[in-house]
Design goal:
With about 325 residues, the chain is α/β, with parallel strands linked by helices. About 35% of the residues lie in helices and about 20% in strands. The protein has 10 helices and 12 strands. The strands form 2 sheets. A 6-stranded parallel β-sheet has the order 3-2-1-4-5-6. Strands 7-8-9-10-12-11 form a 6-stranded mixed β-sheet. It binds adenosine monophosphate (AMP) and manganese (II) ion (MN). Adenosine monophosphate (AMP) binds near residues 29, 297, 301 and 302.
Length: about 325
C-alpha cells in the first residue's frame, strides 16, 4: 500500500465532495452531548456560508442548557428519515450508523466524521481520528479546508464541543492543538467564562437536590478507588428533578483525590440499565465498555445492558476494578 499523499487525505476528499454537492443533512448520536451539538451546528453554519442547503436532524433533543446557543432552533427531531432528498448525509460522532438512532440513512451518501476509537468506517467517505480531543477539532480543520471564516457562531460551537468533550479540560485527550483551536475561537469572539457558566453552571434547584441524593446514596468499592452511583425515577421524583438534570453528575466523585473511576447506573423505563463510566489518567473505561458492547473514550465511555441492576452490577464493578489496577501501573506521578 502506498502512503496517502496530502491531496487524498480524508479531510480533503470530504472538502471536495462538499464543494460539489448542494443539499446536506447533518446528524449525530442519540442523546446528543455538547460535542455532537457543537460539531453539527458549526458545520451547519459553515455550509450556510457556502450557500448550501442544510438540515440538522437528531433522534433526541439536546439538554435544556444548550438551548441558548445559536442555531438550536434549526435542529429537527426525527427517528426516521424516509426520503432525505439530500446529496450527502454528514454523520458526526458515531462509531456506527446505528448510534444515530435514525432509520433510513443507510441508503444515503454518508460522510462519516468521528473521533471515537473503533469507528466502523461505514461511510462512502470516512474520516476517523481518535487523537482528536473532540469531533469539534476535526470540524475546525474541515472548515479551514473549506476556507470558511471562523464566525462567532462557528467558533462558539467548536469551543462548545471541545469544552464538553474534554470534560472541561480534564481528560487525557488534550493536546497543544486543542488549545490552539480554542485560542482561535476566543479570538473569533468566544468568551470562555460565559461558555463555562452556561454549560456547567445552569443547574436547576432540582438538580442541586439530586446531587445531594446521589452522593448520599453513592457507594465505594476497591478501597475507595471506585465510586458506584445509581439513579432511578424515584430519586428524580423525590428531588423534583428530571432526566434533563442528569448530565455531568457522573463527574462529581472524580473530584475526590482517591477516586480513580466512577460507574453510574441509570435504570430506564424499558427495563434496561444504561451504564456510564468516567476515569482518571490511564484507567481505560472504553475497553470495559467495548467488552459490554458499547464504546467511547479512555476516560469517558458507556454501554447499555438488559437485565435488573442487582444482577448485572457485580460483574461490571469487578471488570472496572480490574481496569483500575491495570491503569494504575502506568500512573504518572
Ligand atoms: P456517556 O456516559 O453516555 O456520557 O458516554 C460517554 C462516551 O461514551 C461518549 O463518547 C459516548 O458517545 C460513548 N458511548 C456511550 N454509550 C455508548 C454505546 N452504547 N456505544 C458506543 N459508545 C457509547
Ligand atoms: Mn465527541
Amino acid at each position: 500500500m502506498t502512503a496517502p499523499n496530502r491531496e487524498s487525505s480524508p479531510v480533503r476528499q470530504i472538502r471536495d465532495q462538499i464543494l460539489q454537492r448542494r443539499r446536506f443533512l447533518i446528524t449525530s448520536h442519540a442523546r446528543p452531548d455538547g460535542d455532537s451539538i457543537g460539531s453539527q451546528l458549526a458545520m451547519a453554519f459553515a455550509l450556510d456560508a457556502l450557500g448550501k442547503e442544510v438540515r440538522v436532524v437528531n433522534v433526541d433533543p439536546a439538554p435544556d442548557h444548550y438551548q441558548e446557543f445559536p442555531g438550536m432552533d434549526r435542529i429537527e427531531i426525527a427517528s426516521r428519515v424516509a426520503e432525505a432528498r439530500v446529496d450527502a448525509v454528514i454523520v458526526m460522532e458515531c462509531s456506527d450508523i446505528g448510534r444515530t438512532g435514525i432509520s433510513g440513512l443507510e441508503r444515503e451518501y454518508l460522510i462519516n466524521i468521528d473521533h471515537h476509537a473503533g469507528n466502523q468506517l461505514y461511510g462512502a467517505l470516512n474520516w476517523h481520528d481518535d487523537t482528536a480531543a473532540a469531533c469539534g477539532e476535526m470540524v475546525f480543520d474541515l472548515i479551514q479546508e473549506l476556507a470558511v471564516p471562523l464566525t462567532p457562531e462557528i467558533a462558539t460551537h467548536i469551543y462548545l464541543g471541545i469544552l464538553t468533550d474534554t470534560g472541561s479540560f480534564h481528560h487525557s485527550n488534550i493536546t497543544p492543538r486543542t488549545f490552539d483551536i480554542c485560542r482561535q475561537c476566543v479570538e473569533a469572539g468566544v468568551t470562555p467564562a460565559v461558555m463555562a457558566r452556561r454549560v456547567f453552571d445552569s443547574n436547576s434547584f432540582g438538580k442541586l437536590k439530586l446531587i445531594g441524593a446521589l452522593l448520599d446514596d453513592m457507594e465505594l468499592a476497591d478501597e475507595g478507588r471506585l465510586a458506584v452511583m445509581h439513579l432511578d425515577d424515584e430519586m428524580l421524583a423525590a428531588t423534583g428533578s428530571t432526566h434533563n438534570d442528569t448530565e455531568g453528575l457522573i463527574n462529581l466523585p472524580l473530584t475526590a483525590r482517591e477516586i480513580q473511576a466512577v460507574v453510574f447506573f441509570k435504570v430506564t423505563e424499558s427495563g434496561e440499565v444504561r451504564v456510564s463510566m468516567r476515569s482518571k489518567y490511564d484507567v481505560d473505561v472504553r475497553q470495559v465498555a467495548s467488552e459490554f458492547g458499547g464504546g467511547g473514550h479512555k476516560n469517558a465511555a458507556g454501554f447499555t445492558v438488559t437485565g435488573e441492576l442487582p444482577d448485572v452490577r457485580a460483574g461490571i464493578v469487578q471488570r472496572i476494578v480490574r481496569a483500575i489496577a491495570d491503569g494504575l501501573q502506568t500512573r504518572p506521578v
